[in-house]
Amino acid sequence: EAGVTQFPSHSVIEKGQTVTLRCDPISGHDNLYWYRRVMGKEIKFLLHFVKESKQDESGMPNNRFLAERTGGTYSTLKVQPAELEDSGVYFCASSQDVGHTIYFGEGSWLTVV
Amino acid sequence: AQSVAQPEDQVNVAEGNPLTVKCTYSVSGNPYLFWYVQYPNRGLQFLLKYITGDNLVKGSYGFEAEFNKSQTSFHLKKPSALVSDSALYFCAVRDRRGYQKVTFGIGTKLQVIP
């Protein structure tokens, strides 16, 4: 069974540009999460989808970040326009049910220069 | 609000010695508790979790963790450390009541010295 897959694995963009990160959860997992870790800091929650609906988006830093999950399958996280402080690792995760183990992808490492 | 504290930025242990990585938590209700490991330039791998029942939880790669409700702790342990255990370890908590997101600690770097 395939795990959580994320694309791209690494991205270097200039300040002001747009980047779109994609996440494919484990098949059958209705719950999809986005987290971010800035170097040396804790892993911070961004948002949680249940199927195609946003259950909790309290962690989204500002309106430059837009997450979607069309059809309740894969999800995208777009940053537009990117700022220097957006650099970090963006982790996607999925779980079968809330309360079950959350399985993480390898992360998308974003560097904004 | 829920939170996790990992008081040690780094833990150094000699290969073959027992290791402990500390974690304390704070939740309003009863917790689900998790440990994850991150190897260099990799994603987070699930190690183990406490849901209910036996306070001693066994997980992957010989790791175990002990849930202590009175001390609100969930320390990660292994009887004999391997060099390959060197990585970043994250403790996480989720309140059982209603919907709550999973909250992570800042991580503890484990260095196993040959």
Helix-strand layout with pairing:
The complex is a heterodimer of chains A (113) and B (114).
Chain A: E1 5-7, E2 10-13, E3 19-24, E4 31-37, E5 43-50, E6 53-56, E7 65-68, E8 75-79, E9 88-95, E10 103-104, E11 108-112
Chain B: E1 3-5, E2 10-14, E3 19-21, E4 24-26, E5 31-38, E6 44-50, E7 56-58, E8 64-68, E9 73-78, E10 87-95, E11 103-104, E12 108-113
Parallel strand pairs in B: 2-12
Antiparallel strand pairs in B: 1-4, 3-9, 5-6, 5-10, 7-8, 8-9, 10-11, 10-12
How would you characterize this protein structure?
The complex is a heterodimer of chains A (113) and B (114). Chain A is mainly β and 113 residues long. Chain A is built from no helices and 11 strands. The radius of gyration of chain A is 13 Å and the shape is globular. Chain B has 114 residues and is mainly β. Helices cover 0% and strands 53% of the residues of chain B. Chain B has no helices and 12 strands. In chain B, strands 2, 5, 6, 10, 11 and 12 form a 6-stranded mixed beta sheet that branches. A 4-stranded antiparallel beta sheet of chain B has the order 3-9-8-7, with no helix packed on it. The model of chain B has no long low-confidence stretch (mean pLDDT 93). The interface between A and B is medium-sized, with 26 and 22 residues.
Summarize the structure.
The complex is a heterodimer of chains A (113) and B (114). Chain A is an all-beta fold and 113 residues long.
Number of strands of chain A: 11
Instruction: Summarize the amount of helix of chain A as a percent range.
Output: under 10%
Number of helices of chain A: 0
How would you characterize the largest beta sheet of chain A?
7 strands, mixed
Q: What is the number of helical segments of chain B per DSSP (H or I, 4+ residues)?
A: 0
* Overall SS class of chain A: mainly beta
- Assembly state: heterodimer
The number of strands of chain B is 12
Helix content of chain B: under 10%
Biggest sheet architecture of chain B: 6 strands, mixed
> How much strand of chain A?
over 45%
Strand content of chain B: over 45%
